[in-house]
What does this fold into?
Amino acid sequence: MHQFRRGKLTDYGVHLREKQKVKHYYGVLERQFRGYFDRASRARGNTGDVLMTLLERRLDNVVHRLGFGLSRNQARQLINHGHITVNGGRVDVPSYQTRAGDVIHVKNRKKSLQVVLANLAENTPEVPDFLTLVEGPIPSGRVNRLPEGTDVSIPIQAQLIIELCSK
It folds into this structure.
């Protein structure tokens, strides 16, 4: 009888949708996102660019962007299971903040190499400028510089997120 008709999104709805898109894309929950926003608002510079830089620097994102994991969820699992090392040390925290100069290696174990080499063979990654992929018998990657606002791979309007979170 009655049709459900969606009306035009309100300003709040547009802002919220943008925030939810970023949270879903990076696999971050509300409490973590709030922490990233607080750090970004205290830092110098454009808060939106700093926020996106913090999210791009996450280890699970870097592992995914290097092509070691086909998705961010798979990259998180590789990190949690200890298949990835940073600067020669085991890091099993997906939210680890990488720094410029960090070297990300795949552990020299049969299972680790098997998964990552299969992922690299299946999907040739588009590695962004701030990362370098070194292919070989043991794949590795390097963080050349900190990512900038232009290195974000999804089309978002960070200003809308900042306006929503600043309320």
About this structure: The longest helix spans residues 11-26. The mean pLDDT is 91.
